[in-house]
Amino acid sequence: MAFDGAFLSAVGREINHLAVGSRVDKIYQPSREELVISLSSAAFSGRLYISVRSSSPRIHFTEQKIENPPTPPMFCMRLRKRLTSSKLLKVRQSGFERALYLDFEGRNDFGDSVVYTLAAELIGRNANLILIDQQGKIMDSVRRTDVEASRHIMPGARYTPPENRGLADISTVEYENIINTLLNSKDSVFDVFLNNYCGISPLAVNEIIGEDSFCEELSTDEIKQIALNVIDFCERLKSEPKPIVFWQNESKKDYYFFLPKLYKNAEFCVYSTFSNLLDEFYNERDKKERIRIKTAALLKSANTLLSRTKRRLANQTEELRQTEDREQLRVYGELIKANLHSIKNGDSEVEVMNYYSETCDNITIKLDPTISPVANSQKYFKEYRKANVARVKLAELIEKGESEKTYLESVIHEIEAAETDSDINQIAEELFEGGYIRRPKGITLSKRDKKPKLDTIDYISTDGFKISVGRNNIQNDLLTIKTAGGRDMWFHVKDIPGAHVIVFADGNEIPDTTLDEAARIAAYHSKAAEGVTVKVDYLPAKKVKKPNGAKPGMVIYENYNTAYVSKSSDILCLKK
Fold first, then answer.
1. Backbone angles phi, psi at 311, to 5 degrees
2. Which of 89, 110, 200, 325 has the fewest CB atoms inside 10 Å of its own CB, making it the most exposed?
3. Who's near 291: CB < 8 A, 6+ residues apart?
């Protein structure tokens, strides 16, 4: 993406224009690499979002609802102490460096007025947020470095700006300097710009140079024109930057502060502000990434538990299979007992007539030569009784294991489908309360999460009926057992992890169209593969029962109907 120093300068000017003079109302840190600062004044109110995630470092105002974790990280607590109620004095940038410095006027521990600086270094994998005091010393940062590192970032160390590898600032470089650099180089023009000047992306370089070629192949007039293009580029940024998103073939998507010649035939959209552009461009991607990071450890734990359960089930099933021949052990014991007169001490086997078979064939029975014939008979009877007990016990364990497997598969599906921090926290608490995991670090339930209210995903059917979907096992229980009733209809995919779905009848007869749409919604919110036919069971919700001691989300039902539908995202058009 083209979030280079030039584009950042346009964003910085926008923040300066809107928010300078505003006071900090609230600060929270949705994840380790994200920060939200609420600012307000008589003329402005907004939330400033800063991301130092390596894949999408940026800063802009946001309209998105980003959850505030119940337990703030240490960096967030430090910012709250120093910046809450402070006033934003200035947003500054050094040339086209990919770093913005936000100066806040606040108070120190003695109540004196001081200036704190929040450095937002938006430089790829080295992106960082650093709080700096009035003397230029680091107070805290999102990322820290070792003493041996070329740039020491630790509390108490003196702040030094990011190294620019000796690159010149293209916003201040002289016209003659550009000409001389190109005349004295044998590299391609594209490489010259990327290796000598900072603040511009490959997209901007292509706009400046046009068609790439080697410097020595260019005439003096062509080189002068490229130098003029640089000046025009900088002037265009100062005078008329426009937030533009452009794309080709519905897939290749990018943005900048003008429409590049490379995309002259592309579709494009001009936004009212740079913040609106970035907010919409990154919204869905960041939401998924935020959830992916939070669920990674939880998903790994759940998958490990499922793998262990499957291995245990496989072993128990094999042991159960081995008990199928237990009757033969009793027969051996009986035949040895009936032929004690013909067996001598020390015999390792005996051949006797099997009068339990229809043909009365002779069979050979293995003996333990270290014990007496009577003890051999008793040994077979003992193994027979043991196999009988094992069969009953194994059947119980396998039934319990199958239930455990089904439950864990449902939990994994819910983790993968989680959309909010609250969803993740409730699933983590469910596994913790069930004794499956230790309480995960960084996941703390708020009072609202500990006593969850029904927070379903809602749809409206074509016929106007409300259809609700549980977000996790706790929500499924609340929805099915506590909320639904009367003529409401319950839906769930057959033999596949999925959400509970309820159609609220409100005392009316539910038409077939709504039943079909509810079945398709149940299929969509399940682990079934997209595009395949899915079986969905449905019946009146009041007939769905939850056995005593059953795990969250686990219910039993009978006398149901089954619908055959296709899993497709087309059903999302009914979403509220």
1. -65, -45
2. 110
3. 418, 419, 420, 424
Chain segment 135-155, per-residue pLDDT in tens: 999 999 999 887 666 788 999
Q: How far apart are CA 384 and CA 331, in angstroms?
A: 9
Quote the Cα angle for 503-509-513, to 5°: 65
- Parse the chain into domains and list their residue ranges: 5-141, 454-574
By DSSP bridging, strand 197-198 and strand 168-169 are parallel
Exposed / middle / buried, residue 236 (Cβ in 10 Å: 0-12, 13-18, 19+) = middle
Chain Cα centroid distance, residue 501: 24
Work out the average pLDDT over 31-40.
93
Dist CA 399 CA 309 (whole Å)? 12
Token pair recorded at residue 126: 């080295």
State how far the Cα of 22 lies from the Cα of 44, in Å rounded to an integer.
7
Provide the residue type at 412 as one letter: I
Q: Which residues pair with 88 in a beta bridge?
A: 104
Residue 519 has pLDDT above 90, yes or no: yes
pLDDT of the residue at 1: 60
For 401-467, the DSSP string reads HHHHHHHHHHHHHHHHH--SHHHHHHHHHHHHHTTSSPPPTT----HHHHSPPP--EEEE-TTS-EE
For the residues 420-444, what does the mean pLDDT come to? 76
34 pLDDT higher than 80 = yes
Question: Pick from 528, 277, 570, 518: which is nearest to 416 by CA?
Answer: 528
Decide: helix, strand or coil at residue 364. Answer: strand
The tens digit of pLDDT for each residue in 160-196 reads 988 776 677 787 788 888 888 888 888 888 888 888 8
Query: Cβ distance 116 to 133 under 8 Å?
Result: yes
Distance of CA 19 to the CA centre of its chain: 32
Using DSSP, state whether 493 is helix, strand or coil. Answer: strand
Euclidean distance between CA atoms 522 and 434, whole angstroms: 26
Give the integer Cα–Cα distance in Å for 558 and 490. Answer: 12
Give the whole-angstrom CA distance, residue 63 versus residue 280.
9
How far apart CA 479 and CA 533 sit, in angstroms, is 26
Matching residue, tokens 């290749």: 252
**What is the C-alpha to C-alpha distance for residues 376 and 459, in angstroms, rounded to an integer?**
70
- Would you state the pLDDT for residue 486? 87
The torsion defined by the Cα of 238, 200, 101 and 133, in degrees rounded to 10, comes to: -150
The CATH number of 5-141 is 2.30.310.10
